[in-house]
Amino acid sequence: MYNERNDRGDRFDAPTYERVKVKDEDLDYKNVDILKKCMGGQGQMFSRRRTAFTAQRQRMLKKAIKRARHLGLLPFVL
User: Fold this and answer.
1) For 67, which DSSP code?
2) Under 8 Å between Cβ of 66 and 59
3) Residues 6 or more apart from 22 whose CB is under 8 A from it?
4) pLDDT at residue 34 is higher than 60
5) pTM for the model
6) Which of 7, 16, 40, 71 makes a 20 to 30 Å CA pair with 77?
7) CA-CA distance, 74 to 78, in Å (whole number)?
8) 39-57 per-position pLDDT tens digit
């Protein structure tokens, strides 16, 4: 007999993502290749869970992506 409340069985597996490994000094608007690794197919920034960034690094990423978009280095929609 199984516990219906806590047992999810095989129907739920948490998604696993590839973590983005970036140094703080590399997280800059000029590094377009690194910024593209942190963005999805439609130009959306990945969540903290997916990038494994701290809140501070996620804010740095957001600022770098916005700067790169306004300078024309990154498109608004990929």
Assistant:
1) H
2) no
3) 34, 37, 38
4) yes
5) 0.75
6) 16
7) 8
8) 988 989 999 988 889 999 9
Which residue type occupies 19?
R
12: left (phi over 0), alpha (psi -120 to 50) or beta: beta
Residues 4-32: pLDDT tens digits? Answer: 666 666 666 667 777 888 888 889 999 99
Residue with tokens 């999805």: 40
Torsion of the alpha carbons at 59, 67, 52 and 14, rounded to the nearest 10: 110
Q: Determine the 3-state secondary structure of 39 from DSSP.
A: strand
CA distance linking residue 39 with residue 73, whole number of Å: 14
